[in-house]
Amino acid sequence: MSETSAFFERLTVAGQDPRFSKVCGSVRFDIRDDGNLEQWLLDIDHGRMRVTRSGAPATTVIQVSAQLAEAMARGEVNGLAAITRGEIMVDGDLALALRIGRLFPREPGRLQREDPDSGT
Amino acid sequence: MRDIAGTVACIDGNTFMVSDASGDVESSPSTPVGLFAADTRFLSRWRLTVNGECMTALSVDDSQYFEVTFFAVPGAAVDYVEADVSAIRRRRIGPDLTESLTIFNYGERDMTLDVRLEVAADFADIFEIKFDIGEKSGAYYTNVGENELRLGYRRGTYRREVIVSASEPAEFGPDGLGFAVRLPPGQQWSTRLQAVMLALRPDGVDLRSALRALRPDESTLPTSVQEWVAAAPTLDTDSVGLQQVYRRSLVDLAALRFAPLSLGGASVPAAGLPWFMTLFGRDSLLTCLQTLPVTPSLTPPTLRILASLQGTRTDDVLEEDPGRILHELRYGESAAFEEQPHSPYYGTVDASPLFVVLLDEYERWSGDTALVMELEQEARAALAWIDRYADLNSTGYIWYQRRNRATGLDNQCWKDSWDSISYADGRLPGFPRATCETQGYAYDAKIRGARLARTFWGDPAFAARLESEAAALYDRFNREFWLEDRGFYALALDHDGTPVDSLSSNIGHLLWSGIVPPERAPRVVEHLMGPALFSGWGVRTFAEGQRRYNPLGYHNGTVWPFDNSFIAWGLRRYGFGNEAARIAEGILSAATYFEGRLPEAFGGFDRDTTKFPIRYPTAGSPQAWSSGACMLLIRTMLGINPHEDHLAVDPALPATFGRIALLDIPGRWGERDAFARQRPDQH
């Protein structure tokens, strides 16, 4: 199973997330890998989350490549930066998409570019 | 980075154009002129020539922030202008740039005119301009069409494009467009030029399109400014200068409103032109605090967007922690490719406590309990951040030490330049550092958070805990920051707890936060109003006599109007009405030398020596919290304060103002007027 699938499977199990207690809406991930299309639908109703593999209509649709989805599942992607550079395409409610982005993990010790001249 | 004298700005939120006085743009890699949107320069050249000659401006009308009209003639500026041909360029900024060009022939002969517009786009990120970085990683492209010129830049999936077109037939080339105009005597010729700016996704859709659909049509802009001014309280005063500053500040606050990508169309204040045309946590929170009596509508969207982007996890590049309120949000290429950490960057220690302070202050004015309930979770998270993530060495203070060692900020307080925190002898303290004003904000946030918890959230236990933490912080702070022999508070604590002993304006914020025992206040005030700090115009950021003092030092000696407005608020809190009035008089008088527009900062030179305020070379203008300073100074002069369902008024006017009335101040009381009149016995 891909890391992306594992990520969505975990959400299916989690079910409830207090961070979304004020959020209602539906978000579909369209994940493209060459010709293949993998779709995950998240229905959120005041923090209750239902995750299904479905291509049903959603208020917000997020399009990404399979490669980027894997990186997101590994916690390596800054969502807002990826939207700004066109790697994540959001149609619908961008604020909801950004909230959903918080579900993805983030590596705390992401590699930094060290600047040898800086520091005091 | 350079400040360009004589530039003309045309602004609509984070879209803006800065040109020379004739309307032309001729930029170099390090000058902030051109057409900008989303932190990117979409036009780096925009130069009009008639028969090969550049235009010279005779007059410029920029009384509307989103529209500028240039009256110009061909040729260089000379004593005598033989102006058979003249031109009007009417420029307007909305989602796109439009410019109506009209050329007149007032001569007696038929004219054949070669009218050309030189166009170039370097798609520079605002940070490339600020740090003078010339090289770009992506590739440029140019498409010359029958009816348009497309200039673009592509780097992987990142693509920005500008499309230039005209309403009249034109000859398009890679460097611009030209018109062959035959003009009989007494006739005129017009065309409407347009530059459409696109932030394109790989599928050709503009990534801002959903947001743009929510935007009001550009033709409604003037109405919206009139409505904005009409909705604000009316200022009635005998001071022409104050009237001018008030009007200018109101319009500039309107100009700086912008709709961030993630907020569903609501507007928040951008921090300032040209470097800070985006969302800053600290700047927007302080601007809202300053403007509550006048433009309270800025506050709910500001709190909401900062809440929606509040930190949720730990990230050492963005310096994100759970509960932390962001510092800066950018959409340019350097943010997109994470060469700068601004998507968003969280390296500030004051935005989180100030978020709670604003939420409480807003409720006191508006009575909007729904917002207090809506943002409970976020306010609690911001309060939790203070103790859980900011107390780096478990000593009970907010400390900072950057985790992003490549591009993070050394100083994460409002004075965020590298050398702003120093000992009186000039030494720089080590890290982590704890600056004094941040502790005041934390104290105030706990006190105000306790009120919210008890009154609205139904959690008296949490309220009691916050109050006891605030009391402990008050004692600790007054023991460890107070320099008894000097009679003021240390600017900061060094990493080992040694007080950083320099005298700075930061101590004025402590009065605003209420962390100063009343018996110590007179000594603090004596320093604030003494010759080392007070220039006659305002309180300097850093006192004369400190080793690093420089009247033109960005945070080491200049006078910041915003800083002074909070100091004046603090002075009133402790009963120093006359001193607050002196600051109000100084700052508002300085504004008249800047045509009513207070810059970010001006020189710390003595008022008696220079007689007029000295412009700081790279100061931003307009700047949201400088425009806000005028509003807060009016509040402090009138002494207006929400008191349950009433508006209390307790004026303290400087001698220069005979009468100030602010009419229709909105709040939980409906609308109320506040009057202040000079009493004859005050002289």
TrEMBL record, chain A:
InterPro entries: SCP2_sterol-bd_dom, SCP2_sterol-bd_dom_sf. Residues 16-104 form the SCP2 domain. Gene3D superfamilies: SCP2 sterol-binding domain (3.30.1050.10). It comes from the Bacteria. It holds the Pfam family SCP2. This is SCP2 domain-containing protein. It comes from Micromonospora noduli.
